[in-house]
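INTERNAL AUDIT FORM
Audit reference: QA-55
Scope: verify that the stored structure record matches its stored sequence.
Auditor: D.O.
Record contents follow.
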Amino acid sequence: MEIDVRNLHPLEIRLLRHVSPGETITAQRLIDELDYNIGHCNQAFSWLVAKGFLEETDRKFRTFFELTPLGYQQLENGTPALRIFNLLKESGPHSLPEIADKLTLEKSDVGSAFGILAKAGSCRMKEGNRAEAITNEAPPEVLIAKVVLAKAASAPLEESLLTKEERAFVAKNSKKRGATASPFKLIEREEVFYKLSESGLEAKKALLKANITGEELGAVTPAILASGAWKQASFRPYSLNTPPARLIPGRKNSYGAYLQWVKDKLCSLGFEEFDGPLVENEFWNGDALFMPQFHSARDIHDVYYLKNPRHAKEIEEPFLHQVAQTHENGWNTGSRGWQYTFDHEFTRRQVMRSQGTVLSAKTLPTAKVPGKYFGVVRCFRYDQVDATHGADFYQTEGIVLGHDVNLKTLLGLLKMFAEEVAGAEEVKYVPGYFPFTEPSIEVHIKHPQLGWFELGGSGIFRPEVTKALGIDVPVLAWGLGIDRMALMHLGLNDLRELFTPNIENVRMRRSN
């Protein structure tokens, strides 16, 4: 069989000439022997497999653990558990807040680390809520951390080469995504093995016969002309059958157009739009919404923290004082509050906005009564990415204030969003729980492919939220996933298609 090899790419040519029949071909081999990078390897493999010149022989999955910045910090200073044990052993009993101050650790880190030591029987809590060490040496599961961190300092750890104890430690202290709060990042790699096919062997023979090396020039540059190197060089042939590039007119992004359509629709209904920064502090992100500090309710929002600046300079008054008092004893809202000491340092901590309700809270002090407000808000929250979840997403957020608004008004708004904005034909409402609304309602819609899924939450703000921010009338609030509404409206089955790098899919998608 005659094979035309004149139009092969240099990456393909060099690979075919370099390997012998029956040899195993991997990306790492090409990197070591031909000085390819991983992109070159993937291109060459893709092209040659498509032409039938390479055959896949095996595929292996390998798991590695790589140190994160937090891991390097723990390598240098020790893990929180080891530092706490050493402090208690050398300096005697301390309360947990004292430990946090002396070791400059977060209170949540101190609590979890002390829990490890207490469970292992190395520490205990004595009278007066003071922790003390009761053994001479830290437990093995704490000491092994130092060994594993040191091993990972020079190169990522391969799971198959770790001991049972080491695997158990890294499994508890690693994440695949959002690993900044863990000492290890989990990395999964797939290694594919190839060999020359019969057609590939024929192509190799044809290359050798035609004396095509892969070093032929594909372009004439000013440097080549100036040096005269072109006189002795060989050139790659031109293909006159190559089709010309398409002329593609510009058009609006369909998802961007949908977001603008939603804004226009709400403005036409008399709503005023609000907006705000992506970076907020814990006060507006949670405290002003009556979400208790250091409480399991805070886990509803797994936020991303800012490294620098770590804290806001100040919080607006009188709202800081009123919200703090509401948390501690209910202030004058008619509530007992959460009955704990409000942390004024924690409330200044900077985070990426995790919910659009932040802007609803910030709008309340200056809102008109009656009034209607909305925003299309970008939010950031750690989540496993799948067809209906993303780590960053848009919400349409809003509030309606007035003496006469009630639950029936809210259900009417939710029906409008589900049917007119999302385009859903089947809608249902179920009771929900949010720390800042009572009653709370979740709205669900049925997607033709994905089935029922939650569109978002809503409710009537509690007095602990509204009165602390200067409002004394009922306030309806909602926060709906506009990305999910777009799935229905644009006829898609996966949220990731809204942000696809496949430009052809973007061009074909309809927009408003």
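Auditor finding: record pair retrieved intact. The longest strand covers residues 54-67.
Action required: none
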